[in-house]
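Protein modeling request. Please complete all fields; requests missing the sequence field cannot be processed.
Requester role: graduate student
Desired output: 3D structure, token encoding
Chains: 1
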Amino acid sequence: MGALPVLTAPLLLRSMLVELAILAGHLLLYPTGIAREGPLPPAGGRSAPDAAAPDAPALLPTEGRAHPPVLLLHGFIDNRSVFVLLRRSLHRHGWRHVEALNYSPLTCDLRKAAELLSRHVDEVCARTGHRRVDIVGHSLGGLIARYYVQCLGGDTRVRTLITLGTPHSGTRIAPLMSAHPIVRQMRPDSDVIAELARPAPHCRTRFVAFWSEADQVMVPAETARIDHPDLRADNVRVAGVGHLALPVNGTVAAGIRNSLTSAETAQTAGAAVSVA
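Delivered output (276 residues):
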């Protein structure tokens, strides 16, 4: 990989201003995403057996007739409200089943969050009739999903995992933040990062990692790439997009949709998408 382009002062300033604007907007939306999301309503009602069991989950049997369900997983001390725009984009372009999972901001072990994700994926598959799902994870959410795929057998359930600004090799973030146990698990020398670096032969999931040189949370920026010899991974560099902007940027959303639908995404691995 060649050297990263140096951000010009105007582009860097613009990126920082956009990050601040997104942070302000997200703080307003944050309360709307605190409550756990309920399951999607049935499409066309329940089948006869389900109608006899009022407490049974609603079945949406669309395997082979619709996109696989997409699960959205937020980052550290965040919630599902960060995906408002991405979710709207997916719905507008034909995805029927898009759900977001909240995990507690008090979660102190990434592995426990991955176990919660495992149970949620199984429930979604049972309810929708799909055998596999796609996952989009922002920051820590992408690392949780990757741990589920690599270490908990999630590759049997996850067709494509897309990560946005995820510290796949660990990030050297501010020391004060490292007081939180789950933040320490995102550092380069953590046991979790070491586990993810181990061999992962026959992993069936395809990975797409969006990363940006303007991401100030990923240190170094390249840590948001996936460089593992056993994984089928496409790394997509986006120019001038900060950490908070990744889940709400329109160009990134288009790339996500393309990654979910096109098997040719691998041909564009490492391509730079400029939004300057």
